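Exercise 4. Each item below gives a protein and its sequence. For each, produce the structure-token representation.

Item: Histidine phosphatase family protein (Patulibacter brassicae).
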Amino acid sequence: MPAILLVRHGQASFGVGDYDRLSDHGRRQARALGGDLHRRGWRIGRVVHGDLRRQRETADELLAGYAVAPGPAVARGARVERDVPRSVDPRWNEFDHEGLVARLPDRHRRQIASAIGVVRGREPSAVFQDLLEAALEHWIDGAEDAVQGSYSVFAADARAALEAVVAEPPADGVPVVVSSAGTISVVCGALLGMDRRGWLQLNRVMANSALTTVVSGRRGLTLVGFNDHSHLEGPGRPHRTTR
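Answer:
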């Protein structure tokens, strides 16, 4: 298996009642990536995603964009989206980011409030990001979350999910995994030999619909590309977002 393509979901609906669905912009991002994969000549053999709605919808839009785009894959008889085998593996799900923030101990919330102060006009997403990173650090330090479970289990499940993709019989094309920033970052951090906090740096910068490439070879799994969002660059393309 030469490569595994890991895709972060498109922009979800932050600040709306149901976060777990793509925004219209997120749908355009996923379609743009699908078209770009086609133009690059990637042949999609199968798609795996978690059971979150935003991951499933990203897979839908990616395959739709892939099916209609012109490019080298057409000449090689690329499948349309309905022909690509799909499967669901919940180990590719994201951690419960909203739940972790909601259950962050009060002492941590007070420390954050003291550190950032009350800034008029500060973006809600920026405030949420500060709370999220504090909640993640608390979780990484070994806090067992009643709903989420432990960070160690989350990280082990993500790596096992990747190993399961590698263990599948070779398909007629590359496997595409649609997941989330935290899950993909945990996998990448492990491949790079980062410590527990290292993956937070990766998680912080990953763009919606970004492409990460892992190669499986004689020496095991190697990360060869991370957070590629070139399909969002240029006139008429959906702009880059991280939340």
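Check: The first helix runs from residue 24 to 40.
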